[in-house]
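Figure S7 source data.
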Amino acid sequence: MKNKKLVMIPGPTPVTESIMLEMGRATCAFKDAEFTADYKKLVNDLKKMLKTEGECFVVAGTGTMAMEMAVANVTKKGDNILIVSHGYFGDRFIDLCERKGLNVDVLANEWGKTVPVEDIESKLKEKDYVAITVTHVDTSTGVCAPIKEIGEIVKKFKNTMLIVDGVCATAGEREYIDEMGIDVLLASSQKAFGVSPGLAMVWAGPKAMDRRKGLGTIPEFYIDFEKWLPIMHDPNKYFGTPAVNLIWALKESVRLINEEGLEERYERHIKDAEAVQAAMESIGFGILADKNCRAATLSNVIYPEGIDDAEFRKILAEEGVVVAGGLGAYSGKLFRLGHMGNIDKHIIVSTISAIERTMMRLGYEFEVGIGVKTYLEMIM
Ligand SMILES: *Cc1c(COP(=O)(O)O)cnc(C)c1O
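Tokens for the predicted pyridoxal-5'-phosphate complex:
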């Protein structure tokens, strides 16, 4: 009998049955009264969930589109922007911003370490930055940025907006928009929300909405806040056809999050991450990110000497678990293991066990069962 395949990459993450059922519903007219009420409730629930007095936009597109939507609505050609990068997705903002004619400065560190917050503060003092981008969890390194501390610093600079890429964090890592000083937060459906890919979410605090107003007409059309705002307030209006079934699916995900409790969900992610990371280390793997900045949503797991990446991931897939390869300089050196969203102990124990079976098949010497044992001892 074949193993059931668990998708443990950093997005898409496992989709629960109740969410799948929403996607399988008969698609209705986008002005259907039940649907428009559901859409409106979703937008309001997302605002409430992450505590902002501002707005939330739910639009069809991927996380990358949400990155562009965030930048496009609070900056204009010629503005200075500071990009704090902890890896591949942080770097993605560079090209994105340069194409918009922004003057880009970048702060980065070697992969696996955070940029010190003092460096961010001194950089912000150097010139007038209209915005700073920070990737909450960079999927390429598994580094979690200290958003709360960075928010405290950015609050001192009245003209600077804090844009946070939460694609691999939101609904898994602790985020409260207004109190953490976040001006724009962006996310997408397929990571810690546990919904299939296809929906982008952008939250804009009051300062960001003011900035958008001051910009007048912007060059972008589909991702303009002003085009979508009337629909977010009244989904009976039309701008672009909403992704009806994905909106239902995301609404179910938010219901599951509220049922679990957001704080409980954040704590679960931290506990699971620490236990999974300890389990990997007990088998003989390393973790790329420094201990003080490890993400709760995924781990970037470094192979011990002599383990071939392609072979490992091929056998692991046969054992029923799909993980992702490393990016950039870490391609071939590590695998990326997602442990975020709507997952439970069944899924995590199965994943660790499949990793152990793979290492056994590869002839690696270790104490069989130590990974599962370490996880269980830490989680229980
Ligand atoms: C996955 C990811 C993105 C890109 O999202 P897409 O949906 O693939 O466009 C952006 N930022 C981070 C941090 C991500 O993890």
